[in-house]
Amino acid sequence: MIRRPRRNRQTEVLRNLVQETTLSVNDFIFPLFVIEGQNQRVEVASMPGISRFSIDTLQEEIASCVDLGIKAFAPFPSIPERLKDKYATESHNPDGLYANAIREIKRNFPEVVLFTDVAMDPYSSDGHDGIVENDEILNDESLEVLGKMALAQAQAGADVVAPSDMMDGRIGHIRRVLDEHGYQKVGIMSYAAKYASAFYGPFRDALSSAPKKGDKKTYQMDPANSREALVEAELDIAEGADSLMVKPALAYLDIIKALRERSNLPIAAYNVSGEYAMVKAAAERGWIDGEKAMLESLLSIKRAGADIILTYFAKEFAQSLKK
Ligand code: PBG
After folding, report:
1. Which residues does the Swiss-Prot or TrEMBL record annotate as the active site (predicted)?
2. pLDDT tens, 133-175?
3. Does 19 map to a domain?
4. How many separate domains does the chain show?
5. Contacts with 255 (C-beta within 8 Å, 6 or more apart), sequence order
6. Which residues are 244's β-sheet partners?
């Protein structure tokens, strides 16, 4: 044998030299759940290690992440039922839970970068990402709400708004609204290829945001499709997106790779709640090594071509580096 690939794997130093992909704390955005009240820190039952924080305790959580080198965050609000309505009015309340959380984080940690969520579902009494009329999810009418929401977030201090709703034309509409109000510097990370996935279950528990009726298949993508992701990405690029996201990540590594090959924009991947919960549940039972499975999952997402990874593992990853 002349060729022996095992020669390069003989020692750890050799293996490190030939390693093609590495992970660092700079790769991650850490999602955070915000709830009303004071001194609250409530663990999400289906996401061990992840809690919902009131605005005050959230500052402590962010401080501990910043100490570990995690400096990019994606907060999501949990809105009480009494504030939800058909038009998600609370979503653009300049004094609501979300705007207050954004302002408080930027006041305490001006250097952190906040990716804020633009979508109606946490505020919608129908639990959908658009206005519901006779069981139909209206597109253009919903854009109006998304524009107001993005503007309220920019005014509160968001660095990048991240529309996760999958309405057509939202990137262009939000870009126009932001620019008209002088927020040219606020970026847009588009959830370009967001699939109608079963892996969002724990997230919907955390925010009580599940659809009251029906599913999200008329706006989120069919898991059977990949070319459709390219169409979505092309449109979002043309409409002014600054980065493109694929969601979920692990079951869609081919989509991450396809977007990486076709676009020069930064590609983000969302390692979603169900993907996190699966690793945690199996590790709790002693069926897999949780830390190794975490590192392998994150590496595979990066290897597929993601520059940025949104993951509930971000803090744990940073802690594992310190060990
Ligand atoms: C909704 C939204 C969802 C997630 C982020 N934004 C769920 C959904 O579409 O129902 C899921 C994130 C996760 O599962 O971690 N706008």
Report:
1. 194 (schiff-base intermediate with substrate), 247 (schiff-base intermediate with substrate)
2. 999 999 999 999 999 999 999 999 999 999 999 999 999 999 9
3. no
4. 1
5. 193, 226, 229, 246
6. 190, 267
**Contact (CB, 8 A) for 199 and 279:** no
ipTM over the 0.90 cut-off: yes
How many residues are listed for the chain in this entry?
A: 323
Name the residue type at position 112. V
Active site residue 194: yes
Please count the other Cβ atoms lying within 10 Å of the Cβ belonging to residue 313.
Answer: 26
CA 301 to each of CA 36, 74, 126, 233, 316: distance values in angstroms, whole numbers, following the listed order? 34, 18, 33, 18, 17
Catalytic residue among 247, 280, 302, 315: 247
Task: Say how far apart CA 209 and CA 161 lie, in whole Å.
Answer: 20
User: Would the annotation count 232 as a binding residue?
Assistant: yes
Residue 147 lies in a domain: yes
- For ligand 1, the distance from its centroid to the CA atom of residue 161, given in whole angstroms, is 15
Asked, for residue 235, whether it belongs to a domain, the answer is yes
Query: What spacing in Å lies between the alpha carbon of 267 and ligand 1's midpoint?
Result: 18
CATH of the domain at 310: 3.20.20.70
Domain that holds residue 313: 25-322
- The finding on whether 200 has its CB within 6 A of some atom of ligand 1 is yes
